[in-house]
Amino acid sequence: MMYSKIFNYIQKKALFDKDKKVLVAVSGGVDSMNLLHFLHTYQDALAIEIGIVHVNHKQRLQSEEEEKFLKKWAKENNVPIYIGYFSGNFSEKKARDFRYHFFKEIMDEQGYTVLTTAHHANDQAETVLMRLIRGSLLRHLSAIKEVQPFGKGKLIRPFLHFEKTDLPNPFHFEDQSNSDNTYFRNRVRNHYLPEFSRENPRINQALRKLAFETQLLFEAFADLTKDFEITKIALFRNQTEAVQHFLLQDYLSHFEDLQLTAKQFQELLYIIKHKSSGSYPIKNSYCLYIDKESFDIKKIIPKTENNADSILVEYDSAAIYGDYKFSFGQDKFVNSLYLSVSLSSKSPITLRRRQSGDKINFGTFSKKLRRLFIDEKFTHQEREEAIVALQENQIIFVIVAGKTYLRKASNHDIMRATLCIENLEKR
Asked: What would the mean pLDDT of 90-113 be, rounded to a whole number?
């Protein structure tokens, strides 16, 4: 039986030896139901206590039926269950971000040290091909890891080395969206991989081998450079271009939520190689700091759900707030990537979240932000994430859900500065 084979593999790898409370991410599909049944069957043998975590995305009529079934299953089997509800405009990324944020919350609140997901060998092959198509950095072709840090604990994927076809077929719900080729992964699964398999019937194994060898390559590189102080400027700049390239990739691997495109990576490498002391905003609230001896990357604004902090942007400087980079100065900052706002003053600009009573002047009338958000039908989450910019105690613009609302300038104003706004998620 495949479950016993998986159990023997887990025992050999000692995947759960140091953990007692294990949270199982269950969608209701065949893969996650297999994971739930497996861990429930073997929880005594593995000396673990399991709990179920489920997110109702509210996107399908079947979602309510799935939630009801899982609650009933959990009650019958005396397993705790935790349900989260997605709200706001749906996208694959937003849904995934919500799920994993919710998983971390439950782990913290309930004392779970491990999250398990049902990713299997076929998911690995799909992920590698998706990243190849997107032009990801070589490091990212190592794709999905069997064990990795997650929140204050870790994430384990017990099925990662097993084929989907090897797993049993327990009662589960079929997600009709799996056949919707609007989604990139579905196109890879339903079209691209079947086409490649015409040339190589073992394409899945070939892609997984590529991921495995990529991982080995970077492990070997890490072993060879373990005595390097990577962030020492003189040492870094003294290496060949090839070594610099992979030293930086290795350094960036320590920042889970800093996923750079190939272009962004090259820009960052250029700055480290050629720029003098200073701070250089990157993305996702990260900033590169360089001095005469070393460089360092730090997250400068912790992104919390409320993000009540405010920051000040001085003239002739740049800062990151939320998902945006703000460059305040003259036209030298402007290029096609930016939305530019002309300003009549060089006074510092404050960036913050909305506050009660906030009002913006549109010229012939003023409007409270609360009313603006209601009229434009923004969700609660979008309102909470809105960015308000003030200069000389007056709101000059508001960014909400990717839209920018500007204050109406006076016809007599003389424009003395430019504020350039870049959405880092769209670079």
From this structure: 91
Alpha-carbon dihedral of residues 144, 145, 149, 155, nearest 10 degrees? 80
Biggest CA–CA distance in the chain, Å, is: 80
pTM beyond 0.85: no
Residue 39: CB atoms within 10 A of its CB come to 21
Distances (CA, A) of 266 to 272, 273, 281: 10, 10, 14
Give the mean model confidence (pLDDT) for residues 34-50. Answer: 97
Closest among 421, 418, 423 to 315, alpha carbons compared = 418
- Tell me which residue of 222, 229, 274 sits closest to 253, measured CA to CA: 222
